Amino acid sequence: MFVHNKRLQYTVRVSGSNPGLANLMLEQFGGPQGELAAAMRYFTQAVAEDDPGRKDMLYDIATEELSHLEVIGSIIAMLNKGAKGRLAEGVEEEAELYRSINGAGNDSHVTQVLYGGGPALINSGGQLWNAGYIDSIGEPTADLRSNIAAEARAKIVYERLINLTDDPGVKEALGFLMTREIAHQKSFEKALYSIESNFPPGKLQGDPRFTNVYFNMSQGDGDLRGSWNQGDQWQFVSNPSEIAGVDGGSGEASVKLTTAEMAVVEKTAMRTKSDPTANPQTGAELGAQNAQVIGKK
Known about the structure:
- Helix content is 54%, strand content 2%.
- By secondary structure, it is an all-alpha fold.
- It folds into two domains: 19-193, Ferritin (Up-down Bundle), CATH 1.20.1260.10; 206-245, no CATH class.
- A two-stranded parallel sheet has the order 1-2.
- Helix 1 runs antiparallel to helix 4 (52-89) and helix 4 (52-89) runs antiparallel to helix 8 (168-193).
- The chain starts with 18 loop residues before the first helix and ends with a helix.
């Protein structure tokens, strides 16, 4: 059960209208790294979670993300409020009004006309929010890692938005939202490492022949060695002949077919066989010849 408190989690103070900045803020409202995506990701994970501690944490953070959606939505609404009124009432000449809401050059006029200056569920480029942003897979050791990465990405977007504005109130509110991404990362990391067997994700262990092998698949200038591919836990393989057919097989695909299947496959192969001695004239060649004739005229 959700009960709404009309007070924002963090007070929004906007110094003045800025529809261009409002349009950029939509990234954290209806974008893939935004607050709605985070809330839906953690809420759906919480519903399916069986561990009481993780379930409680996920519900808490999912609900907080909804409050952050309200904060960023309020910032967008306040930045748009002046332009929304001018557009609704038509108080300026058409060309001047268009210039005033499109001055930032980032399609803010589109969100004004289509959505009336409200915080639409789109990103800053106009892409509609969709459930494809939710990448949960129902395995806590995988989902928690994904959640950590999602919070990290959201923090970076907030940093970039902070760098785009000199409005002190907007900066302050965005700084709060960015800071909460850090707090959520910490919670998710603690939850992940409180699972004793958290790596590799899932139940099955990997094939020991390949678990600790590093294949040097991109060779040439720029090859580097580090803890990610050297040391006691790594077998570094760089010889091309050792990279193909690592299972000991030929490295070629094969299938066992029935006699009937083989007959049909061979019939198709014969019907579609190419003649290596043929040199037919093609449409491309005819077109090139015609172009030469026209060029001579």
